[in-house]
Structures are given as structure tokens and as C-alpha cells.
Amino acid sequence: IIDYSGGYVLHVSLGTARFIGASWIGPRLDKDRLEHKPHNTLLVLVGPGILWSDWNRFSDGDPSAASTDAGAAVLNTNTNIATATSALVWITWATIYYKKPSVLGGVNDMIAGLVAISPAAGVVAGWGAIVIGIALR
Asked: Where would I find the Ammonium transporter AmtB-like domain in this sequence (predicted)?
């Protein structure tokens, strides 16, 4: 089994921590369920933008060498193949279903694309990254 970026360990431990945190905190209050608008949409875009750029350093350094694996990781994860495919699929489906795309939905799917490609970033070809990006939806 190849877990390229430690994705399995990260995702399982973070998922467990979030589940335990959510069970301690409990469900949202009824007044908070009525409206889910972000306070500042620009900051909603800045945060994932910083995350995406930092993902470059994360995936580049995994092979610990300047090799074809490092090049594949950069291409598949950060040069927008899986991540942009995932976001574009969301935007397309939102446009078809709701008749307009959603910035927040696109950002959420962009992050999902980063997470989905991480364990396989250095070992899949470009078409595999596209399949992973599409498979999220």
C-alpha cells in the first residue's frame, strides 16, 4: 500500500478528532441553522487560496528528492488537475441544478479535491487525477 502524503493517517486522525469534537459540542442552535452566510466572502476565498498554495510545499517535499515522483505530485495536486476538476464539476452541477454557481460550493469542492488526491498524488497519472476529481461528485 502506498500512502503518498500520509493522507490515510491524517484523514483518519483528523476525522476522529472532528467526530469527537462535534459530539462534545453538540448540534447547532436552531437560530444558527436558519442562515449560513459567511461573514466575508473575500476571506472565504483567501483562506483556501493560501491552503492551495501551501499544498505545493506539502506535496513537493514528500519524495524527499527532485524526481519524477515529485514532478507528478506537483502536477496532479497543485497544478490544478484533480483540484480544479473537482471544483469545475461542482460549478457545472450547481449551474445545471440551481441555475447559478456557488462560490462557497466551489471552494468546498476545491478543498475536497486537495484532500482526495493527496494519498495518490505522486503515483497516479494526469488522467487518474481527473478521475479522482470527478469521482468526488
From this structure: 2-134
